Amino acid sequence: MTDLYPLFRPLLFATDPEAAHAATLAALDAAARFGVARLVAPRVPDDPVTVMGIAFPNRVGLAAGLDKNGAHLAGLSMLGFGFLEAGTVTPRPQPGNPRPRMFRLPAAHALINRLGFNNEGVARFLANVERSRYRGVLGVNLGRNFDTPNERAADDYVIGLRAVYRVATYVTINVSSPNTKGLRDLQSEDALRALLATLVRERDVLTDAQARRVPLVVKLAPDLADDALRGVARVLVDVGVDGVIATNTTLARGGVEGMPHADEAGGLSGQPLRERSDAVIRVLARALDGALPIIGVGGISSGEDARAKLAAGASLVQLYTGLIYRGPALVAEAVQATARFGSAPAA
Fold first, then answer.
1. Which of 77, 177, 301, 315 is catalytic?
2. Which of 24, 175, 176, 255 would be a feasible disulfide site paired with 272, CB 3.0-4.6 Å?
3. 177 counts as catalytic
4. Domain 5-338 in CATH: superfamily?
5. Closest CA to 320 of 49, 96, 24
C-alpha cells in the first residue's frame, strides 16, 4: 500500500474529504484485523530517542485529529510512526460543526477544516483505547465542549485528564483550535496560567494515586505574535508542564489566496503553514532555552521538512495533512530524514 497510494489517491480525492477519511481508516483497520501489516507498513529505521522521560521508537508521530475517538490505533500503528496522538476528545459527545466542514486545496497541498471537536466523548474514547491492541506511545489530546464557557474550561480538562490518565503516555491540552468559539482566548497568559496550574495540580494527585507520572503538553496556535509566544513560554516553564506542540492550524490564508475554498472558515493546514510553524518553533526554542521540549507540526510534506523542524528546535515532529497528500511513504521518509539528528532534550 505504501507504493500504491498514488494510484488510490485520485479515487479518494474524488470523494468528500470526510468520506475519504473514513474509508482510509476502515482499510487500515481491515489490514490490521487480517494481519496483513506487511502490505501496509513502510520500512523505517530504528531511531530511539527519549523525550519527556518517554522512550520513542522514532521522532515521527501522528498529529491529533486523524483518529479523534481512539478507534483506529491498531491500523495507524502499522504505518511506522514512533507515536500516535489521538483526539481531540471532550468530556461529552458532540457532533461538531455542520457539514461540509473539510476542504482540500490540492494546488497548495493544504486543507481547511472547521470540524469543531466532533467526537464521541471521553467514555467511548477510553473504551476504544482499552480494546485496542496498540501498545505504543499514545498521546491523548483534550479539549473542552463547545458549550462550556472558558470560565469553567478547567472543569472539562480535569474530567478528561482523570478519565484518560491510565491509558495515556502523555496528555495534550488543546487551547488552540480555531473552530471552537473562544477557545484560543485560553492562550492569554493569565488564563493559561490559571488553567495549567489547575491541571498540573490534578496531574500530581493522579501521579500519587496511580504511581505513574504522565507528562502534560500544551498545543499552541501559529497565529500568536512572537511577544505573546515568549510570554506563553514563561508560563509553561513557571507552571511546570512538560512540553509544547507548535503548531495547530492557522486562520491566515497566505499562500492560498484566490484558490477554490480558500475563503472557507476554519483552520488551514498543510504546506502553506510550514514556514510559520518553523518560525514559531524557533521563537519558542530561544525563549525556552532547553527548559521544555518542542513537538513540531505544520506543513511537513517531505523528509526535508521534518528535518527542518528539528533544526528549528523541535525534538519530535508530527504529520497529518502531508500524510493525506503523500500517503504512508511520507512516514518512512520523515523517519529516515530525522534519524540520529543530534540529541533531543530529555526534559
1. 177
2. 255
3. yes
4. Aldolase class I (3.20.20.70)
5. 24
